[in-house]
Amino acid sequence: MTTHNKPNRLAKEKSPYLLQHALNPVDWFPWSEEAFDKAKQENKPVFLSIGYSTCHWCHVMAHESFEDDEVATILNEHYISIKVDREERPDVDHLYMTVCQAMTGQGGWPLTIIMTPDKKPFFAGTYYPKNRRYGRHGLMNILPQLAGKWKEDRERMVETSDQIVTDVEQRMLSNLKGEVSEQTLDQAFAQFEEVFDPSFGGFGDAPKFPTSHNFSFLLRYYHRTGKESALQMVEKTLDAMQRGGMYDHIGFGFARYSVDERWMVPHFEKMLYDNALLAWTYLEAYQLTGQTKYSHTAEEIFTYVLRDMTDPEGGFYSAEDADSEGHEGKFYVWKPEEILQVLGDEEGELYCDLYDITEEGNFEGHSIPNLIQHDVEMYARLKGLKLDELTRTIERCRQTLFSYREQRVHPGKDDKVLTSWNGLMIMALAKGYKVLERPQYLEAAARSARFIISKIRRPDGRLLARYRDGEAAFAAYLDDYAFMVWGLIELYEASFELEFLKLAVELNEQMIELFWDEENGGLFFYGSDSEQLFTRNKEIYDGALPSGNAVAAMNFLKLSKLTYDARLSQIAERQLQAFAGSIERYPTGHSMFLIALDYAYSPSSEIVIAGDLQSNTTTEMIAAARQGFRPHTLVFLVPTGEEGEKVRELIPLVQDKQAIGGRPTVYVCENFACYSPTTDIEEFKEALLPQ
After folding, report:
1. What is the DSSP annotation of 580-623?
2. How far is 208 from 241, CA to CA, in rounded Å?
3. Phi, psi for residue 175 in degrees, rounded to 5
């Protein structure tokens, strides 16, 4: 295993992932026409490797193979090698991941593709060791064999790649005809019930991912139907995830997924998007149930993000690695003697007992702190302790252990700022401010939004996808636009600052112009002004991230109501119809679309508050409007004076809404009809109660 002192071309890149490979003996290119031109000139196939900086198996493959002289010699002699950061080029990643899934039935990272100089694949897989091991082929077998076939029978390889491209293009046809209705929501609920794990929560078997949009749909379904099992599925899972080892009980924040069914052993990397979406869902669970354990978890997520994942300029970093010092999870695990050394015998023994820290361990001889065996309240009763005293002791221990853990070698941090994932965190923080009234959440969300608009946009207004080390790059993708618009809508509703609503409208229009499929409806993943790959796909299924098309559908519905834009309302309807067949066939794979459907089929509700924001009555009315779970309600503020006129100009719904007699006044409208306005806060609160 070697790394060379002489850097390759990746040394000039900004991506932390590409920079990790800058000293490999492999003669890497970034994705570029230079690489493909060289492949054509030298008549060599292209070896494409896609991963990301916090990916454990990407690190393993790098150490085993890309730092190895023997592997590098074969690649450099017979291939043109290209490295891609999937988070910078999700267009490339999505396309070739679909290729891998079509060819092998599975996918994941690192993604390994071998293709023609025309970017057409003929081989696909994921992780490969250097040499054959445990029945898995090794690169030292694969690379010479395929290089030989390329030289001996190139025409056949090209024919194979052409057939694969045709098959993938067919596979990516997403505009399947069908019908969706309110019954689609019932079908989805029934499917979720079928695959729910009643023992540990979540859906299906291990590994388990915290797909929070599934649970936000179920919260809406419970709100719509009153079916207790919908809420029970959510609560069971949210409780199990937070008590499991997938949650960082010492430093807060969730890991990417659990490798087991109990949420015990995480894949230790932490992603910004997971924590944003989980904060959103925990906040909604708090709104619906009133249980402070859910709001407390959301607050802890925000503590982690604002402490560890925030750039001084205002953006949010992307991820933290699973590995430190070459070992997965080393930063996060403990031995009992270490706990006793830090906390002392009495508190150390209590902490070890409560958090399952044992000599035998629960992860490779070490222990991941978790509360799977013990609920804190039950533990207090079991031990005859006062709950408030135990809670204070636990928090004191946590702070001490956190300070001690900070001295360890930290996992690597991917400090690039991605527009799409920042959009999700802006959304979550704005929601956090509305629900919990913490000014620091609103301030952080607004800073991030202004940072993106000022630093990750071209002078002509075109949004870009990534910022790092002073450089913004890559024309933004659908997810960047859709998630950012979602964040800006939430930010407007949190702050009532018109600049955010205007930006949401502007970016939404730009998104339609660049991504909309006029012929079939729906939005392509990359813009008409971007590099055109061998097919232009539409992403509609929810994975760890919700579909950009689904989020856009929700945005269209909200903005059409906010601005009374009839054209946008028609686009929203067409957006839902465009993917009706796919949603109908597999509802649970489209939970974010289901959230949009629920919004579309629910009675509209608007609350307009006209009054001076400095008035205590006005702020009390706003707080009342934000109480409880109201996923179909939009709240507007019409300030007094000149600012109020600007609001009326942009939002037609509020044009005739005035503060009566100069007193703060609230207007409640439901299903296209408005009740009599009131200046009485108690009367307003009574009107908000469920009928």
Report:
1. HHHHHH-GGGGHHHHHHHHHHHSPPEEEEEES-TTSHHHHHHHH
2. 10
3. -90, 70
What is the number of alpha carbons within 13 Å of residue 56 lying toward its C-beta? 17
Residue 373: partners with Cβ closer than 8 Å, 6 or more residues away: 356
Distance of alpha carbon 210 from alpha carbon 271, whole angstroms: 12
Kindly state the percentage of the chain with pLDDT values over 70. Answer: 98
Whether 567 and 618 share a structural domain: no
Co-location of 52 and 146 in the same domain: yes
Residues linked to residue 249 through DSSP beta bridges, in sequence order: none
The answer on pLDDT for 1 being more than 60 is no
- The identity of residue 128, as a single letter, is Y
Residues 543 and 648 reside in one and the same domain: no
Q: Are residues 157 and 301 in the same domain?
A: no
Note whether 452 and 422 are within 8 A (CB).
yes
Q: Which pLDDT belongs to residue 4? A: 59
Peptide bond before residue 631 is cis, with ω within 30 degrees of 0: no
94 lies in a domain?
yes
Nearest in space to 102 (alpha carbons), one of 204, 159, 170, 157: 170
Q: 493 lies in a domain? A: yes
List the domain range (segments joined by +) for residue 627: 605-688
Do the domain assignments include residue 474? Answer: yes
d(CA 392, CA 402): 15
Phi, psi (degrees; rounded to nearest 5) at 490: -60, -40
pLDDT, one tens digit per residue, over 228-270 is 999 999 999 999 999 999 999 999 999 999 999 999 999 999 9
| Whether residue 304 sits in one domain with residue 342 | no
Query: Residue 371: pLDDT above 70?
Result: yes
pTM: 0.94
Q: At residue 492, what is the residue type?
A: Y
Q: What share of the chain is helix, strand, coil (3-state, %, to 5)?
A: 55, 15, 35
Is beta strand 46-51 parallel, antiparallel or unpaired with respect to 80-85? parallel
- CA distance linking residue 192 with residue 204, whole number of Å: 10
Rounded distance, CA 611 to CA 639, Å? 5
Q: Is 439 exposed, middle or buried (0-12, 13-18, 19+ CB in 10 A)?
A: exposed
Whether residue 22 is found in the same domain as residue 51: yes
Residues 296 and 418: their CA atoms lie apart, in Å, by 27
| Beta carbons of 438 and 480 less than 8 angstroms apart | no
CA distance 527 to 413: 30
